Amino acid sequence: MTVESLYPRLEPLLAQVQKPIQYVGGELNAQTKPWEDVAVHWALMYPDAYEVGLPNQGLMILYEVLNERADALAERTYAVWPDLAALMREHGVGQFTLENHRPVRAFDFLGVSFATELGYTNLLEALDLAGVPLHAVDRDETHPVVVAGGHAAFNPEPVADFVDCAVLGDGEQVVGDMTDVHSAWTAAGRPGGRAELLARLARVEGVYVPQFYAVAYAPDGTIASLDRTRDDVPATITKRTVMDLDEWPYPKQPLVPLAESVHERMSVEIFRGCTRGCRFCQAGMITRPVRERTITGIGSMVDTGLKATGYQEVGLLSLSSADHSEIGQLAKELADRYEGTNTGLSLPSTRVDAFNVTLANELSRNGRRSGLTFAPEGGSERIRRVINKTVSKDDLVRTVTTAYANGWRQVKLYFMCGLPTETDEDVLEIAELAVEVIRAGREASGSKDIRCTVSIGGFVPKPHTPFQWAAQASAETIDHRLRVLREAINADRRIGRSIGIRYHDGKPGVVEGLLSRGDRRVGRVIERVWRDGGHFDGWSEHFSYDRWVTAAAEELAPFGVDLDWYTVRERGEHEVLPWDHLESGLDKEWLWDDWQEALNEDEVADCRWTPCYDCGVCPTMGTEIQIGPTGRSLIPLTPVGAGPRPQVRAQVDVDVEGAVPDPVHTH
């Protein structure tokens, strides 16, 4: 069977919309396959605009893994801007993929990668445009199986009514298993229809099918029980973990965007997972254990990716890149390898206590020193003990001062506001720290021409972290603390004019908090917001707090709960949490103990370098930490350039693990 392209009907609409280039496809390294040559067809979606979604590493990896199979193909789709969405509805054009503009409705799977919960309304928009029923129970064999993945899939309960499956953990292997299941089911004549297909998928490790689990609620609104409705599906769903990342050197052929995107570089994931134990950081908790790529594996990926893309910058990615056990050697050998070229190296994510000038100088060798980003996260040393961010004020000032003394002129400090046990005084110490940084920097550099930018994000408690029981700070509390912080920074204009402050108000964080720790009842709120015109909630110009508050009040009232119940309420030790049946490997009792240690301001060491402290991941998942040193070294390539030293642009953004971009885009 051949599926007809929608492009002849789409093309006349593109002249009427902004940025039509994002809908035409044809990027360098995009892959196309004849529809009829394969048994299983995947549409992969990042539920945000093209410029945000195309650089996403997870989607690129799955795209290549699937297209390498002889029996499968994968094509991409992204969220459609409102101007084109309106025209598509008017002219009967469905949600389409970029490679061949095939209708998403025709695919066997629609895999959606959620990096943030604020993309949920974009999923509903895409389903509606595609002509796929919003609710999973209304779909039949003619509709794609809708699969949620990404970090937000570790609590997919708010979208349980809209997705058929959720994949927990690493996706490289599980998408192959799901492809095999679908292929075998089709070859057997599709026995038992869609229900049997979903039951077979539910027996794949790491795959959760919400409709096979029934939730009951207690009179106080908490979950009374969650039970299987079939005996042939697991009671607990465990995440998938890929070991030996050198065996999965993806992406090999990174996509190069046609339109401007948020990250225009070739990226290599140098390790996965983090055991620093920052209590706020869901990414660090759910991706354990640490698994490093070898120097030679990384070098091969860099070489292959540069040749395939023509990029002039390589990002060495992880949750805390300078923690790679051989990062110093890696940076030096990569800089040596690309001597005499315009190839730049960057570490977009590392820690204050892992930074050193030698490493930074290797990355910026003979290049322009644009700026450094450090993420202390908490304003006071007390609050940093609470969040297990073991960085002292002296450490930070010393590190920043050293950077200023070595030629850097601009530093960005990233903090969170609204952390558990936080007071106004903790936040005011952010101002004191910024002032001290400027004073010390002026003294060390002998110049007043230095800058410090303070960036503040509102804290949102996340599932599978020690803070999953914590009360979230209200929007009013966040806004109050931001106000007193601004006043403190501006109190001395001689210093204050050298300090910039960037922040968002507390309202988007409240909505994210509702979605991150919500249960299935929250799905009614998401649907109501979407029906009232809500989508692109991660973009400030489209986000409406009032729309969410109204929807929550009206849709949750019949259940006796409200927005505050999901956000500012502290949970008890024995409360059944919506994600308790979804296993990240972390023992719930260990998480509770760590929550108590947070309240006592006790710190926990990194188990990479200390004895195991029984979080539960390695024995539960059958995994282990994989770190160097390996003793390997990069083999020099044939010289790729001669003459001057590499023109390396210094982009040493020093963030801690989990210090993600602000949840609301400011475009």
TrEMBL record:
Residues 260-502 form the Radical SAM core domain. Coiled coil: none annotated. InterPro entries: CHP03960_rSAM (IPR023862), Elp3/MiaA/NifB-like_rSAM (IPR006638), Radical_SAM_N2 (IPR045784), rSAM (IPR007197), rSAM_horseshoe (IPR023404), rSAM_sf (IPR058240). PANTHER family: RADICAL SAM DOMAIN PROTEIN, SLL1084 PROTEIN. This is TIGR03960 family B12-binding radical SAM protein. It comes from Klenkia sesuvii.
